[in-house]
Amino acid sequence: MDGYEKVGNFSPRTDLAIEISNALKLDRDDSYEIPGVEVKQKALEEGALAVTKVRILNTEGEKNMGKPIGDYITIESNGLKQNNPELHEKIISVLAEAIKSLLPEKKQDPLNILVIGLGNRFATPDTLGPKVANQVFVTRHMALKEPELLDEGVCYLSSFAPSVMGLTGIETAEVIRGVADNVKPDCIIAIDALAARSATRINTTIQITNTGISPGAGVGNKRKELNEATIGCKVIAVGVPTVVDTVTLVSDALNDLISHMLKQAEHSPFYDVLKDLTAEEHYQLIKESIYPEISDLFVTPKEIDEVMEYLSSIVANGINLAVHPGMTLKDINKYTY
Amino acid sequence: MDGYEKVGNFSPRTDLAIEISNALKLDRDDSYEIPGVEVKQKALEEGALAVTKVRILNTEGEKNMGKPIGDYITIESNGLKQNNPELHEKIISVLAEAIKSLLPEKKQDPLNILVIGLGNRFATPDTLGPKVANQVFVTRHMALKEPELLDEGVCYLSSFAPSVMGLTGIETAEVIRGVADNVKPDCIIAIDALAARSATRINTTIQITNTGISPGAGVGNKRKELNEATIGCKVIAVGVPTVVDTVTLVSDALNDLISHMLKQAEHSPFYDVLKDLTAEEHYQLIKESIYPEISDLFVTPKEIDEVMEYLSSIVANGINLAVHPGMTLKDINKYTY
Amino acid sequence: MDGYEKVGNFSPRTDLAIEISNALKLDRDDSYEIPGVEVKQKALEEGALAVTKVRILNTEGEKNMGKPIGDYITIESNGLKQNNPELHEKIISVLAEAIKSLLPEKKQDPLNILVIGLGNRFATPDTLGPKVANQVFVTRHMALKEPELLDEGVCYLSSFAPSVMGLTGIETAEVIRGVADNVKPDCIIAIDALAARSATRINTTIQITNTGISPGAGVGNKRKELNEATIGCKVIAVGVPTVVDTVTLVSDALNDLISHMLKQAEHSPFYDVLKDLTAEEHYQLIKESIYPEISDLFVTPKEIDEVMEYLSSIVANGINLAVHPGMTLKDINKYTY
Amino acid sequence: MDGYEKVGNFSPRTDLAIEISNALKLDRDDSYEIPGVEVKQKALEEGALAVTKVRILNTEGEKNMGKPIGDYITIESNGLKQNNPELHEKIISVLAEAIKSLLPEKKQDPLNILVIGLGNRFATPDTLGPKVANQVFVTRHMALKEPELLDEGVCYLSSFAPSVMGLTGIETAEVIRGVADNVKPDCIIAIDALAARSATRINTTIQITNTGISPGAGVGNKRKELNEATIGCKVIAVGVPTVVDTVTLVSDALNDLISHMLKQAEHSPFYDVLKDLTAEEHYQLIKESIYPEISDLFVTPKEIDEVMEYLSSIVANGINLAVHPGMTLKDINKYTY
């Protein structure tokens, strides 16, 4: 997670580039093009599935977005949180394409890929990473031991769940670095549960980026970043927002309510009072004075345990299809029940 | 759960009598006595623990409170959600006393008690009941088979988790009735996770009542009630609020924000606009127009998995101490790890 | 489970009719026909799957087999314990046919079926029943509430896991009776993990019978039987052996070793000593004098947790296909992930 | 695990030094002293608890024992697998003393200790390591961030569960090395579930050694050893046998049966035949010809899930007491529920 960055007027916690670009466009109009940023969108499956590619091209784009240069692909579908195996297969294919488009190229040998499942396996909305790490089709140990037994079209895949610093006492970045030093991957694919700004994004969005990760940063600490510059191999991050923090939710509800009231109050003295309440003021007001006690709470759907099963299966199989070029949608079920 | 009842001005979903009596007092002043209702409160452990007994005495009290005649004992302590074994022991003792005060009396034979653990074992905040059912010290089968082996001072205890209708296809009340017909208990003790109105109550409050249960009612359906009149034995309910629904949370936040603004806006034209916004209007506004999408979301702390371990251990041991008169705090650890 | 019955020479614990009929044939020769018993066998999928129907026709058959009159269908496949989704689909179809052949017939209305998942959800090899109860497609609550919404071709299905007496303090048969009194099913389908005699049967065999169940009997207590005569509706039992008890395993190993030695020792004085050691003597010797300490141990494969996922999915979907006549193999995945 | 070494006559798989020294003594008589090996034993708690220290002094001892020079402390108690909190407290104290006696000394600063929880968290009898890693009182992250907040008497503790190669695709030794390179501990404490030779040892024995570990070796592969020489810090291993492999069990049962028969057959021609059957012949006979199908099976008690809770709590708290010199038995419950 990236923590709180100041973007445009104000932005409470979001890990999603698409939420930022949408917010920036909302402040202007829909045809507005953010300088230094390229946004392409397409709808699939009769609207049940949308893919958006936000490309931050230069430092101007970085400044406008509050995020580093790179590609941010977003897959949106309410089907992610529903028991809909057919739509899930479509999402898996689209996800696999997105990951493939960010993988490094290698002339002859198979890619050596390390999957990192970030998160705390004991907090349900944070289990996405560990679950995916456990469901990808791991091959590296077989490749090393009996390379002749390994099918063509299968890469060297290892996977690992480094847990979280509160449970291990070790910086997660240190653990990853230690493992990567030994595995020496061509590419790391890191999976993490994210925080979204909008409750409608919970369990409906997958973001794939090639800009690296900073594990643990989202909970308030800015630790060592892991990206191509710092760890010497490409780092692809796959994230799904599974929670919204309660302060953000309440703050956004207020904003919406005030917008709603403003429309009705135009030309009244009330209007001036209301429009002076900026979003940031609400946020601070709520966080500090009104609801200090809710600042540790998170918002999730009741059926989160079930949805995590769908999400982890979709992300794991998207990775399987992307990295093992010889595998098909049919094959993957054989290896990941 | 009891669903939405209209109490005083307006009351969003709460299962706690204490939240209703507090709300009624808040509308007046602290010395106000609700007609037909008796409220007694005491603080223990230097304020770390509070016990409140709300007794609804007659139909007038019923009408004022929107809840049936009977006793509602509330134990409040932030220690419930903290890893604090010493305070937990105190809470267990207080809980045991509260349950004992509501148990039926029996002259000679040991009591025959059936513990019912309500809730869905696959949704973390709803697992309290099934976990407790699994942690009480079950004796009935031994008592029937080899009564001579059973210690004096141990009652006949059986326990059961009926799951939820969405998983079984059977009304929970039907399952309980079927089991009770065979076990023929003197008293049922039913454990359930509740919804609170205020986020500060999450995992900090235990309510013990003798007014029966209506399983499943809280999720919107009013099913058969289970109480002394309908099932022929006393029914004690032990509940802990583990979630707040998101609409209630946002609605309450608005109320608080408006109160806050009203204090600053006195004697301004703004004041009149604001004070006309009633709580109920907010609630409906939020529920229907602004945030239809959050109505399925619930608010819980991130560490809910861990807190459920404390809560279930405390409630199970409170029951163990209350029903097995020969057991001590020291004994209980031998049987419930 | 049926406990220890004396069959032919001697039979340590087995719940499988096929093990008894095979043992009886082994004592004679393969063409031997057990009086009062009909045995039909067919191989499918090029031998990857075998289906055997043992029908006990009369009291003579009962006496010879040590099991009640009725049908015992056995499906055998090593694929059950392997990650082989294609073979699993075949097994699901065959299992559905077997269950269908034992279901009661009903002219107009849909069948009202109650699935009972026997076993202890906290002991891995015993979790089959509770897992299946949780994975069948439950419809009864929808049928009662909004019958018009229910598809044609869907029966009234409810499901229930009564846990075990050691955890509830209640005879499992009592719990089932209580629930059945309220649900009033046309047929009960009970799922249970069984004990096999031979280690090769662990997680490779499904037995389907229409002779009822006696829950808890297998662990040494003969409790009330549940069958058409005692509970007033058909009772189909679906069982999978997931353990072998250690004494049986050692005893069988000795028998095999002695057979092996006998073949080599013919015409020697040793022969006479060896052939006098009957199987039953070994069993008692091992159980009482040599290995009292192993009598509580069970034999399971290391990967039991994973295999239970396959088994429960196969059995649940076999039931889904059998009872919901409008469902296809493709549909079932939508409802049971 | 150490795999199969040839010791004395013959030794099937055991990880326990005490089983080897006992076997060597059994071959002679009880007063026999194994050259190069020192054995000291004491009984505690009126025999409910025994502590044995086997010290392998030199290469002669190494040769006799088939294990490297070093200390092997064994704690034996049936209480380990029983719900007996009082005896568990005694075992925790004795375990803490044993670990302390092997810890490195450090003059001024607190020790920097890395706990490694070996094993597969998805196979119940193999979960000891991961569970313990999760229950020790982790402090290193606090010590690094806010050293002034850390109590005196608390060491720098981090903990980590590297999973198993079959799930990660990475040699477990590589993962540990990677993490240790970053944490730079003074001492590693590695926890693992072991295989015992005798079924009576299952869940009744803890072995503590200072001779290092070779993760994964027990399943047949001799991988890189991790000990003071190869990783540059002390490596203490804490192991508990939780399974016996089935072939060993059957083989031992045969040996015992033959001993039993030999006593009765003395002076008969049978005697000579029997005494020629060596233990190793049985083992091979069983493994290769008679029971190839059981070679993947393991023997565990039915209540293994519950026993793993006791074991992990005992081992985690033994470590807590040993490494945090300021902690008492009373404190540890505050941090590890």
UniProtKB/TrEMBL annotation, chains A, B, C, D:
Residues 1-15 form a propeptide. It is an enzyme of class 3 (hydrolase). The gene is gpr. Keywords: Hydrolase, Protease, Zymogen. InterPro entries: Pept_HybD-like_dom_sf (IPR023430), Peptidase_A25 (IPR005080). Transmembrane segments: none annotated. NCBIfam families: GPR. GO terms for molecular function: metalloendopeptidase activity. Signal peptide: none annotated. This is Germination protease. Initiates the rapid degradation of small, acid-soluble proteins during spore germination.
